[in-house]
Amino acid sequence: MRRNTHFWLGLLLVLLLIVVVNLFVLGGKTIIAKLGRHQPGYYSVAHFVDGDTIAVNMNGHSEKVRFIGVDTPETHKPNTPVQCYGPAAAAYTKRTIGNQSVRLVSDPLSTDRDRYNRLLRYVYLPDGTDVNEELVKQGYGFYYPYFPFTKSAQFAADEKLAMAQHLGLWANCHPTPTDQGGYVSNPT
């Protein structure tokens, strides 16, 4: 019996080693990205709403997802004019995600849904890119300080760096500070 157990453990280790070697030899990141598109927890994008909101195909229906911790200038908000850099932010989100599926992750400090009943989530690409953070880092959106979330300090630092480097909206718009420590974009 003991010899049989050793045989199966040895075989399992050999198979595991083969998988690991193949991942490195064949370009693990590419394989993981391809696998990620078809893994549980990944959702295809049904459509892009704007820079900080998408709709995903979830359990047979379309579910709107609002990105946690970032606010991009408006492009479709009722009774609000299109804001400076809003179309650029929307195009960046669409270009960054493309036809990839996304992984949605909730935040323990955030509520599950916002007042518009949209899911509140971090949106990750199959390669691990945090789309929410990239929007702030690249100057396509503002850090959103109005509700608690675990990455708040990082997003605030990302915004300061984007501002200092005059990236995106920081070079092309004149954001107005709010009383609560955030910013809003002005109309175009």
Average pLDDT confidence is: 86
Number of helices: 6
Q: Biggest sheet, open or closed, and with what strands and sense?
A: 6 strands, mixed
CATH class of the largest domain: Mainly Beta
How much helicity do the residues have? 25-40%
Gyration radius, in Å: 21 Å
How many β-strand stretches? 10
CATH architecture annotation name of the largest domain: Beta Barrel
Strand content: 15-25%
Low-confidence stretches: 28-38
Protein structure class: alpha+beta
- How many individual domains? 2
| Inertia-based shape | elongated
Strand order of the largest sheet: 1-6-7-4-3-2
Gap from first CA to last CA: 76 Å
SSE string = HHEEEEEHEEHEHHEE
Detail the topology: elements first, then pairings.
Layout: H1 2-25, H2 28-36, E1 42-43, E2 45-50, E3 53-58, E4 61-67, E5 70-71, H3 86-97, E6 102-105, E7 119-124, H4 131-137, E8 142-143, H5 152-164, H6 169-172, E9 176-177, E10 183-184
Parallel strand pairs: 4-7
Antiparallel strand pairs: 1-6, 2-3, 3-4, 5-8, 6-7, 9-10
Keywords:
188 residues; alpha+beta; OB fold (Dihydrolipoamide Acetyltransferase, E2P); 2 domains; 6-stranded mixed β-sheet; two-stranded antiparallel ribbon
What does this 3D model show about the protein?
By secondary structure, this protein is an alpha+beta fold. It has 2 domains: 2-35; 41-184, OB fold (Dihydrolipoamide Acetyltransferase, E2P) (Beta Barrel). The protein has 6 helices and 10 strands; from the N terminus they run H-H-E-E-E-E-E-H-E-E-H-E-H-H-E-E. The chain has helices spanning 2-25, 28-36, 86-97, 131-137, 152-164, 169-172; strands at residues 42-43, 45-50, 53-58, 61-67, 70-71, 102-105, 119-124, 142-143, 176-177, 183-184. Strands 1-6-7-4-3-2 form a 6-stranded mixed beta sheet. It has a two-stranded antiparallel ribbon with strand order 5-8. The protein has a two-stranded antiparallel sheet with strand order 9-10. Helix 1 packs across helix 2. The longest helix has 24 residues, at 2-25. The radius of gyration is 21 Å and the shape is elongated. The chain starts with a helix and ends with a strand. Mean pLDDT is 86; it is low at 28-38.
